């Protein structure tokens, strides 16, 4: 492993504060959920958020409060991972997540409808979720850019999500065969620039190392500047990258990493 410079260490610590960890496996248990929350409180400070399925929101919030980590956001992921076009089903999921105490909602945009040439389900779904969040709970639209592939489709999805009220647009669920690419992130950043940088970006899906995280940090810095890089505007998703960052900082063993998240 390449030796870390002082600048590398500062960047690694910054990245940890921007991370959004995931607990989104179909076989997740309450024990696993509690474990990932404990991982979220690292020796160099907390991560930004942890994403869970709607059924684990209450447990997640309770666990974090017990750990005195109220500032770590609990993100409820809905319509995951397939991106159904059933707006009423998604509304029910969002309502349940909000009642359980979710700090944020992450809805998988109905990308298959867009692939079929129909933009209406995406507009309707994100608008309905935005109305439920009512400006009090931040809303992420996950676009599954690896499946959209075509640059114009990614751009259309970004624009539709933004105009419908999303506070963040996110690259991927992490469950698709194709992972995020720098090109997809660039398209999304340009969409955000079109609205004056008032919408945030989440990059997720296949990011596993410090070097990969550095690429996306550089893209954001080049487009919006250092002041834009904060957890309210930019996050990096993926639990695997946390182990790499802690290992490079010499903290992995003390933090009990390697639990598969």
Automatic annotation (TrEMBL):
<dbReference type="InterPro" id="IPR013785">
    <property type="entry name" value="Aldolase_TIM"/>
</dbReference>
<protein>
    <recommendedName>
        <fullName>Deoxyribose-phosphate aldolase</fullName>
        <ecNumber>4.1.2.4</ecNumber>
    </recommendedName>
</protein>
<keyword id="KW-0456">Lyase</keyword>
<dbReference type="Pfam" id="PF01791">
    <property type="entry name" value="DeoC"/>
</dbReference>
<dbReference type="InterPro" id="IPR002915">
    <property type="entry name" value="DeoC/FbaB/LacD_aldolase"/>
</dbReference>
<comment type="pathway">
    <text>Carbohydrate degradation; 2-deoxy-D-ribose 1-phosphate degradation; D-glyceraldehyde 3-phosphate and acetaldehyde from 2-deoxy-alpha-D-ribose 1-phosphate: step 2/2.</text>
</comment>
<dbReference type="GO" id="GO:0004139">
    <property type="term" value="F:deoxyribose-phosphate aldolase activity"/>
</dbReference>
<comment type="similarity">
    <text>Belongs to the DeoC/FbaB aldolase family. DeoC type 2 subfamily.</text>
</comment>
<dbReference type="InterPro" id="IPR011343">
    <property type="entry name" value="DeoC"/>
</dbReference>
<keyword id="KW-0704">Schiff base</keyword>
């Amino acid at each position: 492993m390449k030796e870390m410079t002082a600048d590398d260490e500062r960047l690694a610590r910054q990245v940890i504060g921007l991370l959004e960890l995931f607990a989104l496996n179909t076989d997740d248990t309450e024990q696993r959920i509690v474990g990932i929350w404990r991982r979220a409180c690292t020796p160099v400070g907390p991560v930004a958020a942890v994403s869970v399925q709607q059924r684990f929101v209450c447990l997640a919030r309770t666990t974090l409060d017990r750990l005195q980590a109220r500032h770590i956001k609990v993100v409820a992921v809905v319509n995951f991972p397939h991106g159904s076009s059933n707006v009423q089903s998604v509304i029910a999921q969002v309502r349940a997540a909000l009642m359980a105490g979710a700090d944020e909602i992450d809805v998988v945009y109905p990308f298959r409808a867009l692939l079929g040439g129909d933009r209406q389900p995406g507009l309707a779904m994100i608008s309905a979720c935005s109305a439920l969040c009512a400006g009090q709970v931040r809303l992420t639209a996950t676009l599954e850019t690896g499946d959209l592939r075509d640059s114009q489709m990614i751009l259309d999805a970004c624009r539709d999500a933004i105009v419908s009220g999303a506070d963040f647009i996110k690259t991927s669920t992490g469950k698709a065969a194709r992972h995020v690419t720098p090109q997809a992130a660039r398209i999304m950043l340009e969409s955000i620039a079109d609205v004056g940088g008032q919408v945030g970006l989440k990059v997720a899906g296949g990011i596993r190392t410090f070097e990969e995280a550095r690429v996306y940090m550089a893209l954001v810095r080049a487009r919006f500047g250092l002041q834009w890089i904060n957890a309210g505007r930019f996050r990096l998703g993926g639990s695997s990258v946390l182990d790499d960052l802690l290992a490079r900082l010499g903290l992995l063993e003390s933090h009990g990493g390697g639990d598969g998240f």
